[in-house]
Specification:
Helix content is about 35%, strand content about 15%. The chain is α+β, with helices and mostly antiparallel strands and about 140 residues long.
Length: about 140
């Protein structure tokens, strides 16, 4: 994963992938992700953009989020309710998530070597190569 450069500059430096068209709307989505600390749904992000007076369609928000996810610039989780939520990656390294079912609090954790080697081994056993994976662990945090 790579991290976004929040100092301005080109769209690619701000986390917008080269394959996507750099537009004001995509820049607004990327900038908003830089400002919010927690995971948000595309609808939540769209609502925040509208509150700021940005003219960005919900479809554009989804496309921008997908492009950012494909580029490794945002973390993507599916909640217990099957809702997809997004957050700007806070670490450039491969990591996993520990998610509270009650409040959504999320902690980024680096997987032990056993998780990484297990994923490679299972993939190889089935003839897969060039493997990637995600891991989310759901539980209840100490606040609940």
């Amino acid at each position: 994963m790579s991290t976004a450069d929040n100092s301005g500059g080109t769209e690619a430096a701000r986390g917008l992938p080269a394959q996507g068209r750099s537009t004001r709307q995509r820049s607004a989505v990327a900038a908003l992700l830089d400002e919010v600390d927690d995971f948000r749904s595309a609808q939540d992000l769209h609502d925040l953009l509208k509150q700021r007076g940005e003219s960005v369609g919900l479809t554009t928000v989804y496309r921008a989020l997908q492009s950012l996810a494909d580029a490794g610039e945002v973390d993507v989780l599916r909640t217990g309710d099957r809702e997809v939520i997004y957050r700007r990656c806070s670490t450039p390294r491969h990591h996993h998530h520990l998610v509270c079912r009650e409040c959504g609090k999320t902690v980024e954790v680096e997987g032990p070597a056993v998780v990484e080697s297990w994923a490679e081994r299972v993939a190889a056993e089935h003839g897969y190569s060039n493997v990637s994976h995600t891991l989310e662990i759901f539980g209840t945090c100490g606040d609940h």
